[in-house]
Amino acid sequence: MSALRKLTLAISMWALLSGMFLLAAAPVQALGSSQNPQSGSVGLEGRVTAPPPTQAATITTPGNGQTVTHTPITISGLCKTDLLVKVFSNNIFIGADLCRNGSYSISADLFSGQNNLVARVYDSLDQAGPDSNTVIVTFNDAQFIQFGTRVQLSSNYAERGAPPNEELDWPISISGGVGPYALSVDWGDGTTPVLQSVSFAGEQSLKHTYRSAGIYKVTVQATDHNGTTAFLQLVGVATGKVGQSIASGTASTPTTVLQTKISPWIYVPMIALFPVIISTFWLGRRHELFVLRKKLQQAESEVKY
To answer: I need a labelling partner for 276 at 20 to 30 A (CA). Which of 46, 267, 287, 293 fits?
Structure first.
């Protein structure tokens, strides 16, 4: 191989390796929510796995064996910070709170009669940890005894979110009691609680727009025609995180979108060296033809003599 050919190959390899190095060094951003695909970027999407929580929450209030005559009651205890705590009564979801500074507190409704309360922690992937201690509370419900029915609130989502300045849609269900119902929602962000009238029991859609990112305590209250009341505490998230499902026990798959910004400077070495590579090949070819011509002339001279 001629010297020019070797030089050409070396320059080509250098340009290729320079481009690969710049591509590998391009900055990578982790985005919580974005419109994809985006111009000048490569989107990679996947599920980040982690082991489920191993430390159970505890219920310290109310005490085991306690009897109450009014709701809501406060259910509180200890937990691991930043985990979502969901409280169940007789295996039915009745409220949620985010664990802050090692504790949680939930204003919850109860069922008439005996309530077996259990708190369960969930991580950001909606993976459940161990159950807490079981606390038995009896609710002597005078309203139920009087009217034979009592309004109840439920939702398939303990936690639900949307990006700031985008509308959050939260389905809840009203059952029992006698319509019409007065529905009040405090979204926990300092705005005036929303009041609305609902004629019939069934699924309702609560809508709200958070103006700034954060985690908010959402309190829903329903009152029926007879004056019976129901309460439900939830967790609203203004970060774009998809809500967690209670009915199925699984959440919409959380994803982390990795966006690699490709700088236009990555192409500069290859563009700058392209004419050099072409001209070097051309000169190398010219040199080879010149050498070949000289050899032919030398061979002809040797034949003549």
So the answer is: 293
